[in-house]
Amino acid sequence: MPETPASPLHGRILILLLLPPLFWAGNFIAGRAINALVPPVTLSLIRWSIAGLCLLPFALKPFLRDRVHYYSYRWHILGTAITGVAAFNLLVYWGLHTTSATNGIILNSFIPFLVAIFGFLFYRQNLTASQLLGLLVSLSGVLLVVSHGDLQVLLTLAFAEGDVIIFLAMVFWALYTLWVKQIPATIDRSGLMLCQVMIALVLLLPLTLWESQTSSVHLDDTHTWWILAYIGIFPSVIALLAYSRAVTLVGSVRASVFIHAMPIFGSILSSLLLREAFHLYQLMGMLTIFTGIWLANRTRRPTASTR
Asked: Is 0.90 surpassed by the pTM of this model?
């Protein structure tokens, strides 16, 4: 299936594209804040339980209405539930136990390339010169941010077991991005997400019981519950619905390149919430990332046809 033809990004579509990296950047910060209190599988189960409860009031009706169509796309729905809902965040939370946030951000930045490569290999999707150039420019901005503007930081990075786990999560997210594109826009995204969440919860429940044999959960702090509420609502429900809709509207490559904005939002949130200093290299990285995003989403003016 060919990619959606390039079209200008206006208002609502731009918001749909920017909300996911904003909320996912917050998810990395929140996940790191409580990874010693809630083990990864339990954290994923709680996250999607909260998300499912939030979805029910407005997603149940479209879920019941569209359920007759789900069987026609059962493998895509099952695949997206496993890769994008159940496995991706579980692997990220697991990997962050044994690797640094810097490595995690670098690996996260490979998602747009994986989407482009898998789309070309398996779905015959074209990758334009502007998209390739935009991917490379935005990636250089990501590396500028995570290296603090020091090339030596990148050269001395050591990759651990957690990096392999997180990279596998990125592969799963690339597959999710491509597979959710195959589910027609006529199927309501909120009802579809409720179906995906229910499948994920069925898969996560036995894993949580197994994890409870060796790990303990500490939920006796109100601050922890506020963090869980954030994780269950913003990066789960709002971000996933926005991303799924954006992929449908603008295509998988154009939507995924906005994931490179995560380090920008991560730097801003760290400055606001953690009182970390904001540096010149962060500003330069942000400008470079946004330049790459603009290049990847640039539209060509139609040429006049001759008769």
From this structure: no
